[in-house]
Amino acid sequence: MNGWSLPFSPKGLASTLTPPPWHYSGEVIAVEFEMSREQIAALLPDDLEVGDSTQCLAIFADWSSAADSDPRLLADPRRGQYKEAFIVVPTRADGGPAGRVPYIWVDNEVAHSRGQIQGFPKKLGEIHMTKAVALGRGGPKREVGNTFVGTLSAMGRLLMRASVTLTEAISPAQLPPLLALPQVHTRYLPSIDPELAPAHAHSMNILTDVAAGQALAGTATLEFLPSEHEELGDLGITRVGKGYLASIAMTLTGAKTMPAKPF
Description:
Helix content is 9%, strand content 51%. With 263 residues, the chain is mainly β. A hairpin with a 2-residue loop joins strand 4 (81-93) and strand 5. 35% of the residues are buried. It is globular, with a radius of gyration of 19 Å. Strands 1, 2, 3, 4, 5, 6, 7, 8, 9, 10, 11 and 12 form a 12-stranded mixed β-sheet that branches. It has a single domain (22-258), classed as Acetoacetate decarboxylase-like.
């Protein structure tokens, strides 16, 4: 049997994933929002603390991905391209600032499996984003005055909606730090053997070649909506800040494992 991840097969082609490095290039719509420190702490395991700020991010991303070990990601857009929507809250890990993703949805099997292995709590959803156009009037151009929207639905329920009306071009250095900080995840695999403990550890991704290109900022709106399947709608937004439209890229080469306190 061959392969890097399940399912294994005689040739290894059936494996959902091949090993890192994994490369990502994408367009993001991001909106700053704040919650109370108590609300952020409720989204963190006991052994992670709230970061120095209470500024969080809601992000919609349209990704193209590639892997040195899997040419199919570039050859087949259905395999390598996907959208996701998630929120990032500030925390501290390994002695420095980090991000934590308590909720995330994705629309692609490969990206879903890649997230689960990293410790991202990825679930399947439907993500739609305004697409910038270069010609004509069929959509907005990446210009001041235009509005870009992201929506997330799952299980037939609308869960999140964000909009950004662009007011200024900015430098990549003016983008929110949470867009580029390493993220600490929790790899957790329950045991179906009652005699064994679950596999449980924190994992901080190792990123290289983090880059941002054309970026614009503006006024934003953000809504989290209720669903009987989720708790995103329970989050208490105390303030909505700026919104951003940006091109970003990064490479994930691996992760550092750290002990985690049992739940």
